[in-house]
Amino acid sequence: MSSTFFGLEIGKRALDASQLALNVVGQNTANVNTPGYSRQVVQFTATDPFTPPDFEHGHPGNLGTGVTISAVNRIRDAFTDKRVFGANAEQGSLGNLSDILSRVESAYNEPSDSGLGHLASNFFHSFADLSANPESGAIRATVRNQAETLVGAFHSVSTALDQIGPDITAKVAVKIGDANTLAGQIATLNNQIRTAIGAGDQPNDLLDKRGALINTLSGIVDVQVTDGRNAQTGKPNGEVEINVGGYALVQGDQSSPLPTTVTTTNGAIGLTTPSGDTIPLRGGEVYGLAKASALVAGYKSDLNTLASSFISAVNTQHATGYGLDGVTGRAFFSGTDAQSISVDSVIKTDLNAIAAASAPIPPATFAAGNGDNARALAALDSAPVINGFSLNAYYNAGVARIGADSRSAQTAGQNQEKVLSQLQAQQASVSGVSLDEELTRMLQYQRTYQAASRVINVMDDIVGRIINNLGIPGSA
User: Fold this and answer.
1) For the segment 74-96, what is each residue's pLDDT rounded down to a tens digit?
2) Label partner for 344 (CA 20 to 30 A): which of 206, 215, 255, 398?
C-alpha cells in the first residue's frame, strides 16, 4: 500500500516542475532581444512508477509518482548554423573587397576632368595647338603646364594605390589577431562546457556564448566546425573542433594561432606558416583583404606600364625634334614609372627646349616655325604603343576593368547580404524567441501549477481529517 503522503509528493513534484518551466519561460522572455541567445524548452519526464507490494492481491498495478524535468534543452539547428557560418565568410570577403575597390575607383576619379585620361588628352592636344604656332611662348607654357598637371595626376594615383597596400597589411594583422583571440576564448569555453556536461549539467548559456564567438570568427576566416568526441566512447563530449583550410585552429581546450603572412601564389590566396606551409583561404574578411591586395598590385602594375610606355613614347618622339634653340636629342620626361615620372629639368627651366620642329631634310636648314614634331607628338594620343593599344585605349581598358571588378564585388555583396539575411531569418525561426509562444507556454505552466496546488490542498484536507479525527467517537 502506498504512503498516505503519496498524493502530496505527486503534487509537490508537479509544483516544482511547473515552477522551473515558468522560470525557463521568464529566461526566454528576458532574452528576446539578446543576440545569439537560443530559445530553451523544458523536457518533462514521468518519474519512476511505484509498484505496490500487494500487486498480486487486487491492486491495479504500477502507480505513477509524478513528473520531473529531465533537461532544459537549447534549440538549435546545426545544419543551418553551419550554412550561416559559410554565408558570414562570403559576406566578410565581399564586404572588404568592395570597400577596397571603391577606394581604388576614388583614386582614379574617372570619369572627370581631373582624371588621368582627360589630362593626358589635354597634354597631347596642347602639342596640336603648338604645331600650328610653334614659336608661341604662351602655347609652349601651356604644354609645360599640361605636362606638370599630368605628372601630378600620375603621382596622385600612384600614391593612393601605394597607401592601400600598407592599410590592407595592417588590417589583415588586426583581423588575424581578432581571430586568434576568438580561438583562444572558444578553446576555454570548450573546456568549461566539457566539464559541465561531464558533471551532468546542461550549460546552455556557455553553448550560446561559444556559438556567438564562432559566428564572429566565421566572418573573419572561413571555418569548418565539427563536434569533438570522447576518445573512449566515440560520443560527442560537448567540445567543437575548428579548422581553417585544414589547419587545426581549435582542438579541445587548445588553440593554435594563425600566421599573419599572406600569400597569393599562382592565384591561390592563403596564409604562410613559419615553417613555409600554406593555409588556403576561401572566404572571410582576411580572404577579401588578400584578394583586394592582389588586385591592387595588378592595377599598380598596369599604371606603371602606362607611365613607362608614356614616358618612352613621348621621349622617343621628342628626341627626334628640335627646340627653338636648334638643339635636338632631348627627353621631355624623366623617370621610369608613375611615381617617378617628372618633367625634364631642362624643359622646366627653358620653354625653348620643347622640340616642336622636325629634323630638316638636307639641304634645308632648321626652321623655328616648323611644327611637324609637335604634330607627331600630338598623334601619340591614338598611336598603338602598348601591345597594339594606344595609350588612351590601354588606360581606358584598365579603368573599365577596375570599374567592372568593383561593380561585380558590390553586386555579389548585395546578393550575399540577402542570402545571409534569409539564413539568419531561418535560424531565428528555429532558435529565436517568440513572445506569443512564450505567453502560451506561460499560461499552460501557470494552469498546471494551479492544478497541482489544488491537488495538494485536497490531499492536505484528506490527511488533516485522518489525523485530526482518527479515533474520535462521533466525528464526521
Assistant:
1) 999 999 999 999 999 999 999 99
2) 398
